[in-house]
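Lab notes, practical 5.
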Amino acid sequence: MPLKIAHINLAKGLRGGENQTLAIIEGLNHFDIEQTLVCRKNSLLEQQSIKLNISVISIHKPFLLNVAKLKPFDLVHVHEGRSIYFALAVNLFFNKSYLVTRRVLNKPHEKWLTKFAYEKAALIVSISQKIDAVMREFCPNQKFKIIPDIARQLESNPTEIANLKAQFEGKFIVGHVGALDDAIKNQSLILKAANQLRENENLIFILLGIGKDEAKLKNLADKLNLTNVVFEGFKINIADYFALFDIFIYPSKEEGLGSAILEAFHFKKPVIAGNVGGIPDILGDNKYGLLINPFDNRELAEKIVTLYQDEALRNHYAEAGFKRKDAFGSDKICGDYFQIYRSLCT
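Output from the prediction step:
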């Protein structure tokens, strides 16, 4: 009989970790398992799961009242930090094993319950070497494995791409996709670089995303009178924008891995990204993209100009990134997870 796996992600939004949860579930559909996603009722993740025909158990607070719903499953896979307490309860009530995929760099809280929940997990999977090091320090007696995020194969719409190209005709487009959370995603650095490059009328910066710092960032853009910056907000059709961009910038101050970079690779876009966290796991030592100091807007501006002026270099990094994404293919990564599921259920 196929294994029955419950994936848990109780996030409200639909950010990188949630998209990766969905990508893993979709990739595992090719294996001999039955899967269900446990998510927050009326969340964006629930809505997207339904669109993708993923089996869903939607729950609301207090979440722990829903623990019995996971009794029929063989194994629980935790995809974000708040969900680990739910998995712990399932383990304590029904003796079900759980594994955790850790996608953020910060160390979990040192509270006894948090540490107990991570220590009770059968395995902690980290998506990058930096996260793995953090978690090994936090739970030195645990079992660990590194499995990176999936390079999602996003599908674009030729009609929408044509419309966007007409809208920004004649412009060299510097694109960014990320939640507007300046402390992490560092969009203020992008605005400062745009201010430096404002005299080049061909350059335009397009930022996709919403978040807690949206007003702050728009106020900064207004204060600097940045006519070369466009905030496009939250877009479902991000694939069309990736296809539109000439280059992709991702100057994060911290990053578990940086799965948006993998999505840019899929569309053969050269990448400039912060030399932090798990990003070097993807870009290497400037082999597959250009790394920058995320606290130096002048360096970001200089690297943008370098790629803008050198088509051959753009093409080099576009091809290098496109080949690099194969190391993050769905079949390989989901195959690794399937082997873990089988080993934990025997």
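Observations recorded by the TA: The chain has a mean pLDDT of 96. The first helix runs from residue 16 to 28.
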